[in-house]
Write a structure and sequence with these properties.
about 280 residues, alpha/beta, Rossmann fold, Alpha-Beta Plaits, 2 domains, eight-stranded mixed β-sheet, four-stranded antiparallel β-sheet, 8 helices, 12 strands, binds ligand L263DTV3, HAD_sf, magnesium, OTSB-like, metal ion binding, metal-binding
């Protein structure tokens, strides 16, 4: 898939990427949907843009650079669709699932829900299925710790009511509802992408025996849940919001094609620190 050439990256983002490229160790942590992969109606059809896949493979190969994908997707689905390079750290279900891509597939940290959480998950799925049955085009995605009402193909006049009904299901179960892009997601485990990024930074610092503050981080995300990840970044890190919407990120690009350009620039800069255009 090749689309129109994206506009040049903003000068201040290029400068920030060039400065980040000189830091080691470097954590490159990326959201999947809407960032590496363009948004589509059918989530099973999502794939990274080829240019992004090439760039992350180069980054994953670079000296003392570690790649992580931090997604709302369940871990298995994330690995299947993203096909990340070996060694990539994977965070699924907004931080509830953790794993690593190995030559033999995903090595996942076992997930253990309590009997109460399992019962709550069953009630949650049933509740959202009832909502979906009443709204044209709506459907429910089930994950190990969560369920998602999708309304991307629902007429707007029905989608608003379905969203409110899904939020009511969550509230009735004592759970929080996260509103994303044409989705309402409800999890039986409270997690956030911010906690996940903090843990990834600490892991990399521990593995390299450096201070946490010595780890440079790039994080790019497009949705409301990515704001939690932007919030935990500090001076010298680079946070990039993809697309429209309020954000605390330090930089913004328009779309996944621009993300591919950003990642290619960073891969070039990492390969030749200080000499990148
Ligand atoms: O954290 P992410 O990797 O961005 O995952 C967030 C959700 O992504 C998926 O839904 C979104 O992408 C779909 C495919 O493009 C789109 O149809 C949907 O409207 C978007 O919200 C995924 O299905 C969810 O489970 C993730 O939580």
């Amino acid at each position: 898939m090749s689309g129109p050439t994206p506009p040049p990256l903003p000068d201040d983002l290029v400068a920030a990427l060039d400065a980040l490229a000189a830091r080691r160790p470097l954590l490159v942590a990326l959201d999947f949907d809407g960032v590496l992969a363009p948004l589509v109606d059918d989530p099973s059809a999502s794939r990274p843009l080829p240019a992004s896949a090439t760039a992350i493979a180069r980054l994953a190969d670079a000296d003392d650079v570690h790649l992580a994908l931090v997604s709302g997707r369940d871990l298995a689905g994330l690995a299947r669709l993203a096909t990340p390079p070996t060694g990539t750290w994977l965070v699924g279900s907004h931080g509830a699932e953790h794993g690593e891509q190995t030559p033999d597939g995903v090595h996942a940290v076992p997930l253990d829900l309590t009997p109460d959480q399992r019962a709550q998950h069953r009630e949650l799925v049933a509740g959202l299925e009832r909502v979906a049955a009443g709204a044209e085009g709506a459907w429910v995605e089930t994950k190990p710790t969560a369920a998602v009402l999708h309304t991307r193909r629902t007429p707007p006049d029905q989608a608003a009511g379905a969203v409110e009904a899904a939020v009511a299901v969550a509230t009735g179960l004592g759970l929080d509802a996260m509103r994303g892009k044409d989705v309402v997601e409800v999890a039986v485990l409270a997690t956030s992408k911010g906690q996940a990024v903090v843990a990834l930074r600490e892991r990399l610092a521990g593995e390299r025996s450096v201070d946490v503050g010595d780890v440079g981080v790039l994080y790019a995300g497009d949705d409301t849940t990515d704001e939690h990840a932007f919030e935990v970044l500090g001076d010298g890190d680079v946070s990039v919001k993809v697309g429209d919407g309020d954000t605390v990120a330090g930089a913004r690009v328009a779309d996944p094609a621009s993300v591919a350009a950003l990642l290619a620039h960073l891969a070039d800069a990492v390969a030749a620190p200080g000499t990148s255009a």
